[in-house]
Design goal:
Length: about 100
């Protein structure tokens, strides 16, 4: 991560905005990390038992959609991630 530059807020509203921004940043990072972890778990389960794979894929889709809804990732990024997962699933089921 980049080093955070100390900001010198003068007004109370600017100080409050900095606090709110810090809270939102933590939540966004948490949601993004959760999405990454569920997608990685789904990739790991590809080619294993079908019902486990489908559950993991469903959870990954939900995490991606939630990140999209919250504005953490963009629409095309979400579509690309979901498409890539379904491609991997299709390839794994063909083997």
């Amino acid at each position: 991560m980049y080093a955070r530059v100390a900001r010198m807020a003068i007004t109370s509203s600017a100080k409050k905005a900095i606090r709110a921004s810090a809270r939102k940043r933590v939540m966004n990072l948490r949601r993004k990390r959760g999405m990454h972890d569920t997608v990685a778990a789904a990739r790991k389960l590809l080619g294993k038992k079908r019902e486990e794979t489908m559950e993991a894929l469903k959870a990954a889709y939900q995490a991606i959609d939630k990140a999209l809804k919250r504005g953490i990732i963009k629409k095309n990024t979400a579509a690309r991630k979901k498409s890539k997962l379904s491609q991997l699933l299709k390839r794994a089921s063909m083997k």
